[in-house]
Structures are given as C-alpha cells and as structure tokens.
Write a structure and sequence with these properties.
about 425 residues, alpha/beta, Fumarate Reductase Iron-sulfur Protein, Chain B, domain 2, Rossmann fold, four-stranded parallel β-sheet, about 50% helix, binds iron/sulfur cluster
Length: about 425
C-alpha cells in the first residue's frame, strides 16, 4: 500500500524542536525564516497532518523551498529525518492540489516511457539552445537571470548516449565482473562524455558493461516533486528491466539516481526483489576505489600536475555515504594534485528543480561553493552528479572563471591519457 504523510508520523514526533538543524541548513542561513529550516517544515507537516492547516499554494511553495540536501538529517540528534517528512508532505499537498498539467504529463507519461523520452529531450534541446540566444530581459527568461546575467545552461543533445552504445561492451583484457550501467537521464542526454568516460574506465579495469536500453528515469524528479505514484511506476519498470541484466553490480554515476535506487526504491516498492536490486547498486567511484582500483593502469608522470578539487554531492556523501573513495582515486592519479576545498560537502545550490524555481537563492548558495573552489587554486573541480555539474558550470562562470567542471570519470580518463 502506498505510504502517506500519516505513515511518517513517528518521524514527525521524533523532532524535539532543538533547532540543531538550523546552522547547517543553506535555505535557513539565507533567509533566517523558520519555515525555511527543517524544524519549521516538520512543524508545518504536523499541522497539515492534524488538519490545522490547509495544503495551500503558499504551503506548496514553502515545502518546495528546500534543497533536500540532507544536512538537517545529518545534524538532527533525534533521528527525525526531515527530508523523508518533507517528501511525504510534498506528496500529500500534490495529491490534494494536483501538480499542474505539464509536470503531470512529464512525470506520469513521458519519463516512465523510454519511447517518449526523445520527445522531451528534443524539446529541451531546442529550448536550451533558444535560451542561449534570447536576451536576459525576455519574459520567461527573467526567472533564470540574476544580476543581469542569464543562467549558463548546457544543451540537451538530440541523440542519446544509450542509443550510441551497444547492449554489451566487453572488458578490455581479463573479465572480472559484469556491471550494468544505470546511466540516468542526464548522462544519457546532456553529460554524455561523462557517461562515456564511466564505460571507458570500467571496461579498462576489467568490467563487462551492460547497457539496459529501455531503462527509464529513476523517478527522482517525480518523487521529490510529490508524485509518488509516478515514482513507483518508474521504480517497478527499472526493477523488472535490471532483473534480467544478470549483473554483479548496478553502477550509477549520478548521486541522485544512485541514492534513489538504493534508498528510496525499497520504500516505493518494498520486497525481496527490490532489496536484491538495491544491494547491487553501487556508485562508480566506490566500485573504482574498491575491487577495480588495482587494475587502474596508472603510469608515472613527470610533467606539471593537474590541480583538482572535489565537490561532494549531497545524495552521495550523506545519502550513499561515499566520501573517501573519490579522494582515494584522485590521490592515486600520478598526474593529479588533489587539493581539498573548504566545505566540500556543503550543497552547491543546484538541487534539481530548486535552481529553476528559486534561481536567485541557488546563485547565492552557489556563490559560497564557487568561492571555496577558487580559493584552492584548482584548475578542475570534479564531482559525481550531473545536477551539481550543471550548477557548478554556472557558478564558476560567475565567480571562479577559468575553472573546468568535470565528472570524476572524466578526470581519471584525462589523467590516464596524459603523456
Ligand atoms: S534538506 Fe537541506 S535545505 Fe532542506 S531543510 Fe534540510 S538542511 Fe535545509
Ligand atoms: S529536526 Fe532534528 S535537529 Fe531539527 S529541530 Fe527537530 S530534532 Fe532538532
């Protein structure tokens, strides 16, 4: 049976109102308004549940103004898990108020249907190219403009990475494992070079890589927007598809996809088959730093080193608990000098649709991240989340020009190719 807000009452009741979540909450630090902190949202969720408040539009906006960065989950001494409560409140409000025609169409019809995905990608491909051409004052573009400068937006490709790859890519040399690569929509349609780099490094290290061509969106956009029914539909489809891949691991290179497959699917579709699936889900960096690291063909390097820093995506560091692995990988590359940045695990402000709905706040949160990157003197900032990559590209263009944004797999590939 589908979980509802009342099923999270135990988490709501755990909140002891201590305010321990305030110092680490980026939205609260920006506005200093209680409703922007986890405690305020947990209290509002309780009022919704008790029928003391109605699911109004302003209530929907309040719950939407959250990065789901999980800094509050980490800080909470009482185990209240505010992000689960916020997601459940969004779902309760979405159920009562509806999501609007376009989001409903995307979540319930396009994203769960691989055959329709090119329509969305082509539409976004045209929109992202048009966006680049139109002036910042154009109506509709204004919301994505801050300080007179438009958001820097990577364009959607008109052909997908999965469409260009074969079903199975053999290991180079002795095969040590079979890994199904869950590309996610962004590596499939936007950051395709990052996706290719994952395949290149995995095969180079002895993995046979399986591409599940009919894979659909992981469901994160629907889940975090409060459309639990569509998220469940996508979970069921992916669970059935990957069950036939006969893989030792299901590899993700998107923090949000990985966290949703591993942590949210068991909540959306409880059962033994989901547990088996989720147990196999592993972040690319964790796999590379673990069983594959000894097979990474590193060579001595005598020239100048690439200065690289690393940004921790929230769903990877706090969700999948992957933090030491990217650092181990980057430190192992002979041509790379790894430099730790301050507040590496602080949210970059991207957070999927947050940066579209609250662009001004996304810039203010991202400014601090870009300044921390700049202070390291690094040439490259690596990360493992396409949503973070999108936000970092925009933020470094504003506040740390000249810094390149790459996925960890791309940094590894570049380091291996250097003479
Ligand atoms: S998830 Fe992040 S932005 Fe949302 S309430 Fe918690 S700390 Fe604040
Ligand atoms: S959510 Fe946790 S940290 Fe925040 S006020 Fe409640 S108990 Fe304290």
């Amino acid at each position: 049976m589908r979980k509802e807000l009342k099923d999270y009452k135990n988490l709501i009741d755990k909140c002891v109102l201590c305010g321990g979540c305030h110092p680490d909450c980026p939205t609260y630090q920006l506005s200093r308004m209680e409703r922007d902190a986890a405690r305020g949202k947990v209290l509002l969720a309780k009022a919704l549940l008790d029928g003391e408040l109605e699911p109004t539009r302003s209530m929907a906006e309040t719950f939407g103004h959250c990065l789901t960065c999980m800094a509050c989950v980490e800080a909470c001494p009482a185990g209240a898990d505010p992000v689960k409560v916020i997601a459940a409140a969004r779902a309760a409000i979405g159920k009562k108020r509806g999501l609007g025609f376009i989001p409903r169409l995307i979540f319930s019809t396009i994203l769960p249907n691989r055959a329709l995905m090119p329509l969305l990608a082509w539409g976004l491909g045209i929109a992202t190219r048009l966006f680049k051409l139109l002036p910042p004052v154009f109506p509709g573009i204004k919301g994505m403009t801050h300080g007179g400068k438009k958001r820097l937006m990577p364009a959607f490709h008109f052909s997908s990475l999965k469409g260009m790859l074969p079903d199975v890519i053999p290991a180079k040399g002795e095969k040590t494992m079979r890994a199904a690569f869950f590309t996610g929509c962004m590596a499939d349609w936007v950051f395709t070079e990052g996706g290719r780099a994952v395949v290149d490094i995995l095969t180079l290290c002895g993995a046979e890589v399986v591409i599940v061509k009919d894979e659909v969106c992981c469901g994160a956009p629907a889940f975090f927007a409060g459309d639990r029914a569509s998220a469940e539909l996508m979970a069921m489809k992916n669970l059935a598809l990957f069950a036939t891949a006969d893989a030792d691991y299901i590899v993700t290179s998107c923090a949000t996809c990985g966290d949703v497959l591993k942590e949210v699917y068991p909540d959306l579709a409880p059962g033994g088959a989901t547990k088996k699936f989720s147990d196999k889900v592993i972040d690319f960096q964790k796999l590379l730093a673990g069983p594959l690291l000894a097979r990474l063909p590193v060579k001595p390097h005598s020239g100048p080193k690439l200065k690289v820093t690393y940004h921790d995506p929230c769903h990877l560091s706090r969700g999948m608990k992957v933090m030491k692995e990217p650092r181990e990988i980057l430190r192992r590359l002979p041509g790379v000098e790894f430099i730790e940045m301050a507040e590496a695990d602080r949210c970059c402000g991207g957070a999927g649709t947050f940066s579209a709905d609250y662009y001004g706040d996304a810039v203010e949160i991202g400014r601090r991240k870009a300044e921390n990157i700049k202070a390291t003197g690094a040439q490259i900032v690596a990360t493992e989340c396409p949503s973070c990559e999108m936000q970092l590209l925009d933020m470094v263009s504003r506040f740390a020009p000249g810094v390149e944004v790459l996925s960890t797999a791309e940094v590894v590939r570049r380091a291996l190719e250097r003479k």
